[in-house]
């Protein structure tokens, strides 16, 4: 009985050990892998292209977070390449579900203590937060608010530009009218001059 029990315990310990080392159990979330890989790959391509890509997205100076330098280009070029969509709001919602924090007030910089440059093995320690219906990241609210403000500002600029174009159009129409009046005067003068020359010839 003792031998059977010892064998059972040993088998159980071996099975538990294998289970704890199972690659499937220790695999990072696909979203985290893609985000990590895009930073590594895009930064490498940026170095090859004299930093052109670096200004879209890159690791921060300390390597403990990353910065989206251009939201428009990131949404247009990077997101479709790695995530098959171009929705920046959806991307930062995903970051929030894994506990990332916006770490700079004046730029889109995100950090997580387990998300570090060169330490891909730490990704397995990042877990998804429990879903809460009321959760809506503050930095996403700020992004939505800023976007609405940008749209309003753009509309105002377009209205001003439209007003200026109308003003320029009226000025051009007035100039055209003046040129036409001048043209008529020149034609009259030319006609009178030709008439005078004709009379002189007849007299001669």
Along the chain, the helix and strand elements come as HHEEHHEEH
How much of the residues is beta strand, in percent?
5-15%
CATH architecture of the domain at 30-125: Orthogonal Bundle
Could you tell me how far the N terminus lies from the C terminus, measured between alpha carbons in angstroms? 151 Å
Helix content: 55-70%
Which structural class best describes the helix and strand composition? alpha+beta
CATH topology of the domain at 30-125: Arc Repressor Mutant, subunit A
Question: Would you report the number of β strands?
Answer: 4
How can the largest sheet be summarized?
A: 4 strands, antiparallel
Note the overall shape. rod-shaped
CATH superfamily of the domain at 30-125, please?
A: Winged helix-like DNA-binding domain superfamily/Winged helix DNA-binding domain
Q: What ranges have pLDDT less than 50 throughout 5 or more consecutive residues?
A: 1-24, 47-51
Using only C-alpha atoms, the radius of gyration works out to 36 Å
Q: Give me the number of helical elements.
A: 5
Keywords: Coiled coil, DNA-binding, Nucleus, Stress response
Family: Belongs to the HSF family.
GO biological process, one term: regulation of transcription by RNA polymerase II
Domain HSF-type DNA-binding: 27-129
Structure write-up:
Helix content is 62%, strand content 6%. The chain is rod-shaped, with a radius of gyration of 36 Å. The protein has helices at residues 2-20, 30-48, 71-83, 88-97, 138-203, and strands at 57-59, 65-68, 101-102, 108-111. It starts with a helix and ends with a helix. It has a four-stranded antiparallel sheet with strand order 1-2-4-3. The protein contains five helices and four strands; from the N terminus they run H-H-E-E-H-H-E-E-H. With 204 residues, the protein is of the alpha+beta class. Mean pLDDT is 76; it is low at 1-24 and 47-51. Among the domains are: 30-125, Arc Repressor Mutant, subunit A; 156-194. Pfam families: HSF_DNA-bind (PF00447). Residues 27-129 form the HSF-type DNA-binding domain. One of its GO terms (biological process) is regulation of transcription by RNA polymerase II.
């Amino acid at each position: 009985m003792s031998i059977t029990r010892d064998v059972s315990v040993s088998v159980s310990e071996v099975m538990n050990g294998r289970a704890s080392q199972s690659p499937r159990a220790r695999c990072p979330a696909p979203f985290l892998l893609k985000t990590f890989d895009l930073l590594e790959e895009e930064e490498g391509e940026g170095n090859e292209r004299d930093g052109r890509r670096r200004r879209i997205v890159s690791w921060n100076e300390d390597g403990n977070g990353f910065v989206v330098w251009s939201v428009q280009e990131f949404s247009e070029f990077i997101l479709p390449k790695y995530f098959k969509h171009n929705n920046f709001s959806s991307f930062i919602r995903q970051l929030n579900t894994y506990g990332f924090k916006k770490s700079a007030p004046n730029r889109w910089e995100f950090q997580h203590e387990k998300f570090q440059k060169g330490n891909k093995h730490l990704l397995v320690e990042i877990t998804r937060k429990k879903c809460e219906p009321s959760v809506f990241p503050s930095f996403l609210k700020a992004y939505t608010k800023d976007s609405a403000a940008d749209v309003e500002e753009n509309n105002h600029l377009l209205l001003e530009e439209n007003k200026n174009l109308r003003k320029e159009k009226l000025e051009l129409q007035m100039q055209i009218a003046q040129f036409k009046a001048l043209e008529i005067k020149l034609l009259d003068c030319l006609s009178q001059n030709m008439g005078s020359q004709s009379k002189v010839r007849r007299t001669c």
